[in-house]
Amino acid sequence: MIELYYWPTPNGWKISILLEELGVPYTLKPVNIGKGDQFEPEFLKISPNNRMPAIIDLDPADNGTPISIFESGAIMMYLAKKYRHFYPEGQREQIEVDQWLFWQMGGLGPMAGQAHHFRLYAPEKIEYSIDRYTNEVARLYGVMNKRLEDRAFLAGEYSIADMACWPWASRFERQGQDLNDFPNLKTWYQTIWARPAVKKGYSVGSELTDPSNLSAVTSEASLRD
Fold first, then answer.
1. b or e along 179-208 (b: 16 or more beta carbons within 10 Å of the residue's beta carbon)?
2. Beta pairing, strands 2-6 & 26-30
3. C or N: which end of the chain has fewer Cβ atoms within 10 Å?
4. Closest Cα partner for 57 from 10, 24, 20, 87?
């Protein structure tokens, strides 16, 4: 059994989508980042960087004590390796997945998050910042679009690399992007969205948010989560 510490944001969706794709049972542990749950001492024991998602694996493969993991990329690699799915066996194929997973963690997620913040939630509209991050997201979308010219997925077969990138691409409008400008990316996006596990993982926790706290939640999430 996996305990998933989660709030419905792009980084949270990465893990809920992967768990649904794996068909692994899990217990949802909401972390309301709009109310500051991420700063609670008990959560900081699991995620010292006060960010969700995080997991606790109550039944690790070594039969030892439960394992807690923070950082969405680390969580995805752990789960995919443990259940031997969505992460290839061969070294060269693993390198392909690793590159695109790290690309998302170091580039697409942070840049898209900054675009969310400055376009939608910053108290002052700073055109330089809006243009900088909107244009950088467009560049990153262009990288994916080029990559997808001759393949269906980012790193060979459908993998955690795609599951890491897709939730951030699902916020394309908030990032000032039009998927029609990136036809290969659009096809990839639609192909993944057609997967039942993706739809289910994307909807996890949708009942947790309401209009009264959406602004606070999304503003916090826009920077990292």
1. beebebbbebbebbeebebbeebbebbeeb
2. parallel
3. N
4. 24
Give the pLDDT confidence of 107-123 residue by residue, as tens digits.
999 999 999 999 999 99
Helix segments in the chain, DSSP class H: 10-22, 41-46, 72-83, 91-103, 109-116, 127-147, 160-169, 183-193, 196-203, 211-223
In one letter, which amino acid is 203? S
Q: What is the pLDDT of residues 167-181, one digit of tens each?
A: 999 999 999 999 999
What is d(CA 225, CA 223) in angstroms, rounded to the nearest whole number?
7
Q: Which domains does the chain have, with CATH numbers?
A: 2-86 (3.40.30.10), 91-198 (1.20.1050.10)
Number of Cβ atoms within 10 Å of the Cβ of 27? 11
Q: Are 133 and 111 in contact (CB under 8 A)?
A: yes
Q: Which CA distances in Å does 89 have to 64, 73, 86, 104, 154?
A: 25, 18, 10, 21, 17
Distant-in-sequence, close-in-space partners of 41: CB < 8 Å, separation ≥ 6: none
In sign, the C-alpha dihedral spanning 134, 140, 144, 146 is positive
pTM of the model: 0.92
